[in-house]
Amino acid sequence: MNAEIITIGDEILIGQIVDTNSAYISKELNKIGVSVFQITSVQDDRAHILDALKTAKKHANIVILTGGLGPTKDDITKTTLVEYFNDTLVRNAEVVAHIKHIWKTYIKQPLLQVNLDQALVPSKAKVLMNQSGSAPGMWMEKDKTIFISLPGVPFEMKALMQNEVLPKLSAQFDLPFILHKTLLTYGLGESVIADRISDWENNLPESVKLAYLPNLGRVRLRLSSKGYNKSEVMDLINAQIDKLIPQISDIFVGFEEDSSMEQIIGNQLIKIEKTLAVAESCTGGRIGAQFTANPGASRYFKGGVIAYDTKIKTEVLGVSDVLIDRHSVVSLEVAKAMALGVQKLFGSDYAVATTGNAGPDKGDSDADVGTVCIAIATPNNVFAQQFTFGKHRERITTKAVHMAFTLLQKEIF
Amino acid sequence: MNAEIITIGDEILIGQIVDTNSAYISKELNKIGVSVFQITSVQDDRAHILDALKTAKKHANIVILTGGLGPTKDDITKTTLVEYFNDTLVRNAEVVAHIKHIWKTYIKQPLLQVNLDQALVPSKAKVLMNQSGSAPGMWMEKDKTIFISLPGVPFEMKALMQNEVLPKLSAQFDLPFILHKTLLTYGLGESVIADRISDWENNLPESVKLAYLPNLGRVRLRLSSKGYNKSEVMDLINAQIDKLIPQISDIFVGFEEDSSMEQIIGNQLIKIEKTLAVAESCTGGRIGAQFTANPGASRYFKGGVIAYDTKIKTEVLGVSDVLIDRHSVVSLEVAKAMALGVQKLFGSDYAVATTGNAGPDKGDSDADVGTVCIAIATPNNVFAQQFTFGKHRERITTKAVHMAFTLLQKEIF
């Protein structure tokens, strides 16, 4: 089974938004055994949408569209589908009742005709009830190709995928099992890794695909395979991983599918019953934000201090002025003092601290742009390392966050 | 001039990464007057890439490809381009010298044959030197269609766009001026806004396009137009904006293109010479991270406390236990005490505090999932408001961050 995803909206083609819907849909389709052949983003334009529908039908058994289902005039997906299917719009009573209910219960503003018109659907469509909004999903079929139209609002699209689309596709088709396992590595470039594991790579079975994904100091190695026998597919991939890991044990930190690095750390801290606090200067709260993005963070994450201004490092975290004068605010010594300061103030077992210069100017410190010091305080030790992370503000802070996770992870396992 | 963007990589089609490159390229092309007709994401597959090149050539004068230029075996864009152009690979001396230089200066690891082979380029290609990496960009032409192949690493792609692609396209073609102006609103749904401004919308000139972009409590209204006379296009859009703003003055907060909300706030704080601190519970550091993502944040942002654990609210921010016992940790009173606490501790003029329950469980508080209290402390006042932001963790915190910016913005202008 091949799928194509068509995302509709001028906002995508002028670069006003990043299309995150298609990545979500691709990932979820993969989980139930549907491969995505192509993703196509098109304008809110009748002729262009019609052309995309015709092209997609040539490649794919399943075509999933998102966007263009809103109540305003720029939304034309529904009328274009009616034209493509040579159909007419009919009022769906269940959707009318649902819209009236959400306006009465949640929105509490006048119900306009354009809102009620969201209940107009093509007569040939099977309606997919959208519990989170007023635009229903629609399931239509033409010559054995399935066309599914979903709202572009990510939350509504995701709920419809989980509650309607994925269960219906799984029930209707006998789908294979697709497995991706991604090994996270830190410390070597992709070509050096490829050189080191070339014998292993050259002997991979035909049915196993390998990809290298470099990203700001990390390289991810992805192994993929599929088949109708789930345990055979898993055994095939796991046998290759068992051969690979001993060759990269110095740079291997975990599997991406299991969880992100911050989740791996969080789960381990919960397991060993330890807590964490952060003292963030150049990372400005990003480390805290990434930990607390995960449910259950309150079981190990106490919080932290965003010590952006130098005075906060001294007055709140208790770093001494003398230390800063002697070593500069971006130094191993100050990073360590920040980690110890927040560890004491917050009563945590572990602490992470960052101090650096993300540019564009030198700022309070004498440190070159890109210099970052990261410290880790453990229950009975503290250490710090200095890094140079280039000249680009966002890359510097992202690399600092990645490196902070990497250093902390090594201490708690 | 129409462009098509082709992003290449299995990681996109299995949903392992979100394709952010195409949004960047679209935005930058728009700025120089090139419209993007379509974005297509395809697999690392020879036949599929060839098919995408042929299809794109029908729509577009300019085809920009990203991805598949790495040194490992899964990268096949270059060999596929050679096939499409019926060409051969030749070694480029300038690229060889560049690769040797970066290995000697920065990488300091053995230079492998696969790294040197990055200097092999199609003989018909004009090389675009990649100062940030080893894979050069390539510019090729076929029957008046330009094909530009760029690395998939965002940082390298962006540098090549800025230094090579955009200047060359601007020099080669007489391009129109494209203008997008986006009004940020907060407080009303898109259909209510559309109803209110329908007379204005119905009388828009043909050459002005309007789009509604709803997003977690905000609706953005985008006006677009293009033409060869820049001042005429600007006058056309500005005249419509002048008519629109009086009709939405209660919900209008600024223009997106000028800057993000946090930049608007930051610039204003710099202008009025005031400082800011944050006390974040449920937002976990995201407000601080968003302010500090912008250069110059140190001119107004002192830092903050991530008070995730209840104890941190009392012990670090000085919120009294009695207050928490009486009102619950998620309450207007505690939010206000947090804002005042961090304002005092950090010596800032303004402070923002968040306390809420982002779920999935009730946690330390009695508050329902989705309840968030946000407080703003000003130099001579403090106030707080309570919100209910649904049930989805990421949406709750995003809405809380948006609302914190909205409340603060109103106080400083």
Q: What is the terminal-to-terminal distance of chain A?
A: 42 Å
Going by helix content, strand content and strand pairing, the class of chain A is alpha/beta
Beta-strand percentage range of chain A = 25-35%
Most extensive chain interface and residues per partner = A-B, 106 and 106 residues
Tell the overall outline of chain A.
globular
Mean pLDDT rating of chain A: 92
C-alpha-based Rg of chain A, rounded: 26 Å
Helicity range of chain A: 40-55%
The number of helical runs of chain A is 16
Biggest beta-sheet profile of chain A: 6 strands, mixed
Strand order across the largest sheet of chain A: 2-1-3-8-7-6
Oligomerization = homodimer
Regions with little confidence, pLDDT below 50 for 5+ residues of chain A: none
User: How many beta-strand runs of chain A?
Assistant: 17
Describe this structure as you would to a colleague.
2 copies of one chain form a homodimer. Chain A is an alpha/beta fold and 413 residues long. Chain A contains 16 helices and 17 strands. Chain A has a 6-stranded mixed β-sheet with strand order 2-1-3-8-7-6, with helices on both faces. The radius of gyration of chain A is 26 Å and the shape is globular. Chain A starts with a strand and ends with a helix. The model of chain A has no long low-confidence stretch (mean pLDDT 92). The interface between A and B is large, with 106 and 106 residues.
